[in-house]
Design a protein that fits this description.
The longest helix has 26 residues. This protein has a 4-stranded parallel beta sheet, with helices on both faces. It is globular, with a radius of gyration of 16 Å. The chain is an alpha/beta fold. The protein has 7 helices and 4 strands, in the order βαβααβαβααα.
């Protein structure tokens, strides 16, 4: 059974597709992982703006096929892990589907928790379970540990800067927040899947 990751921002043309594509790239070795994205106020069928495409391309990722789509309750329900780009998006996801609370984080929040936990392998079920089950267990472990992980001095440190219709520098700042968080989360999930 597939382990599904959903990334969420507002328009689904900048932050969440970048997170989707970075995670899909980093988790490509895990065949049972599917990453998708959606927006709380999506620019439906719009692509990623040129500055975002350039930054993705610099990482060897082609984002030209992406098209924005609207977040729905059914999309959230299908996800094993929801990564919001801000606390506002996390709140919107949970309001739409309250049962998703324990599996919904901001991307920078989960990266912090994953760093705090370290390798997830020690805390997930025995090796006779599937990689997908072990990743689901790693998500639940992160939910339990969420309140114990060090928090930023400013809660805005859990959010990703919105670059939409802003400067190339703002795009670099935004993607510079997403990229390391995605890498950390991919390592965390991979450690759980392969334990």
């Amino acid at each position: 059974m597939t382990f599904q990751i959903l990334t969420v921002c507002t328009g689904n043309v900048c932050r969440s597709p970048a997170a989707e594509l970075f995670l899909a790239h980093d988790l490509a070795a895990l065949e049972s992982v599917k990453v998708s994205s959606a927006g709380t106020g999506a620019l439906i069928d719009h692509g990623i703006p040129e500055p975002g495409l350039r930054l993705l391309g610099a990482d060897g990722i082609d984002g030209s096929a992406h098209r924005g789509r609207q977040l729905t309750q059914s999309i959230v329900r299908e996800a094993d892990l929801v990564l919001a780009m801000s606390r506002e998006h996390r709140r919107a996801v949970v309001e739409l589907a309250p049962a998703a609370t324990r599996r919904t984080f901001t991307i920078r929040e989960l990266a912090r928790v994953a760093q705090f936990i370290g390798t997830a392998g020690d805390a997930v079920p025995d090796s006779d379970t599937t990689p997908e089950d072990r990743m689901r267990a790693a998500v639940l472990l992160a939910a339990v540990q969420r309140g114990l992980a060090p928090q930023p001095d400013d809660p805005a440190g859990l959010d990703v800067v919105d670059p939409y219709r802003r400067s190339d520098e703002t795009y670099r700042e935004s993607f510079g927040q997403i990229r390391p968080a995605a890498t950390t989360i991919a390592k965390y999930l991979t450690s759980a899947a392969r334990f």
